Amino acid sequence: MTNNIFWYNGKLIQSQTIELDINDPGLLYGATVFTTLRVYGNSLNSSLTNWDLHCDRLRFSLQTFVWQQPDWERVRQGAEMIMQHFPTLRITVFPDGREWITGRFLPQDLTEKQTHGITTSLAMSEYYRSLASHKTGNYLSPWLAKTSVPQDAQEAILVDTAGNWLETTTGNLWGWRDGSWWTPPLTAGILPGIVRSQLVNWLRNQGLVVHESPWTAELAQDLEAIAYTNSVVEIIPIHTVYQPTGSLQYNPHHPKFQQIKRFFSMT
Asked: Which of 207, 116, 216 shows the shortest CA–CA distance to 173?
């Protein structure tokens, strides 16, 4: 396998570099939309791969921005080519409809993080995501938030100006308290994660209560256990959250996490 391969504008390219016009808005302004998916069972048709939902996410943003739709058959062709080399795909679309598909491997320490949890840190409120309902190429704020955390922290949690917790730089937050699940609402200005929306519906169909409520500092402090989810890492517990003063500790081995893990065991 090689990292030096990607799909761009209808072609499979073996290189570590991509050629873009110096006036390309994707280069100048981060004017792209993207989605990142994990291929399950080596199939784009797997119910856990969620190919259609990821394409719908791209379509929604392209329609909202009045950008050109790509050649969707070519997008799928490129995805099928790159998934032969990587289990994770990042599908990017430029304003003029060009598609760019890159791949990467799962993190080597993913199982350890899923089992034992990670340390995170609250980010400064200035590091909010722009156009929160869309995954755009302008990801500077989350990148700055994640790279500015203490050395032993693996993630950052974005907050609003009131101190409410929103999401991590790469996923949606989940917490357990009072016999039910809690997750920040979309109205707070967070990304409508594909896994998040599916989990909300799936957990409720299992007869479980899911509160979509703002995560005030008080609520966050009272939660028994917290984690974040996304389409690649599934669920990762959080055992420590650094704050400007002190830190919060949570149980990364909380038995209720098994309820969410069962969702990812479906085929």
From this structure: 216
SS (HEC) of 65-116: HCCCCCCHHHHHHHHHHHCCCCCEEEEEECCCCCEEEEEECCCCCHHHHHHH
Q: Identify the structural domains of the chain with CATH numbers, from first to last.
A: 6-104 (3.30.470.10), 110-264 (3.20.10.10)
CA nearest to 169, candidates 185, 148, 199, 150 = 148
Rounded to 5 degrees, φ, ψ at 209 are -90, 130
Closest residue by Cα to residue 182 from 217, 219, 230, 156: 219
Model confidence pLDDT, tens digit, residues 199-233:
999 999 999 999 999 999 999 999 999 999 999 99
Placement of tokens 């302008």 in the chain: 138
Q: At what angle do helices 72-82 and 51-65 cross, to 10 degrees?
A: 130
pTM attached to this predicted model = 0.95
Distance between start and end Cα atoms, the chain: 26
CA–CA gap between residue 93 and residue 103 (Å, rounded): 15
Instruction: Quote the pLDDT of residue 2.
Output: 58
Beta strands in the chain (DSSP E): 6-8, 11-13, 33-38, 88-93, 99-104, 118-122, 155-159, 165-168, 172-177, 180-183, 210-212, 225-230, 234-242, 247-249
CA-nearest of 219, 259, 216 to 237 is 259
- CA 86 to chain CA mean position, Å: 18
Query: What does the CA dihedral 43, 48, 52, 55 come to, rounded to 10 degrees?
Result: -90
